[in-house]
Design goal:
- With 134 residues, the protein is α+β, with helices and mostly antiparallel strands.
- It contains 4 helices and 5 strands.
- The chain folds into 2 domains: 50 residues, no CATH class; 69 residues.
- Helices cover 39% and strands 27% of the residues.
- A hairpin with a 3-residue loop joins strand 2 and strand 3.
- Helix 2 packs antiparallel against helix 3.
- The N and C termini lie far apart (67 Å).
- The relative contact order is 0.11.
């Protein structure tokens, strides 16, 4: 390991200070062996696994529904839908229902992170077998 060739920028140093002593040594080794970007990714993932329980992970994904965007954010017990089209939200909820996901509408307020016009929140009651449209 050649520490004189090591270059750690300000953002990387912030991560470095958050690590335990043993992890700092491993981080320095990883930077010299696999590169700074890969080492940062590896140790950020390790910190996330350490401090955020796996069952509480949040996933967000955008879909194109016709000319509109639909942002779907899923939590362990609820799902938020955000779009410029109320029709797109209703189509998505209907699709979830047909696939067997039982939802209950909740009254929650839109936050500054919800950039689209319409916002809906549903509690996930459970999952059953898919329903037939017939």
């Amino acid at each position: 390991m050649k520490l004189e060739e090591l270059e750690i920028l300000e953002n990387d140093f912030d991560l470095f200070t958050a690590l335990d002593d043993v992890d700092k040594i491993e981080f320095l080794y990883d930077v010299t062996e696999i590169g700074t970007e890969e080492a940062v990714y590896k140790h950020v993932q390790r910190l996330a696994d350490k401090y955020i329980p796996h069952e509480q992970h949040i996933q967000s994904e955008d879909f194109q529904v016709g000319p509109y965007r639909l942002c779907v954010t899923s939590f362990p017990d609820k799902i938020t839908l955000n779009s410029n089209s109320l029709k797109a939200i209703k189509q998505f909820v209907r699709k979830l229902f047909i696939d067997g996901v039982l939802l209950w509408p909740l009254k929650e307020k839109k936050t500054e992170y919800d950039m689209y016009r319409f916002f809906r929140v549903y509690k996930i009651l459970g999952r059953v077998g898919p329903f037939s449209e017939n």
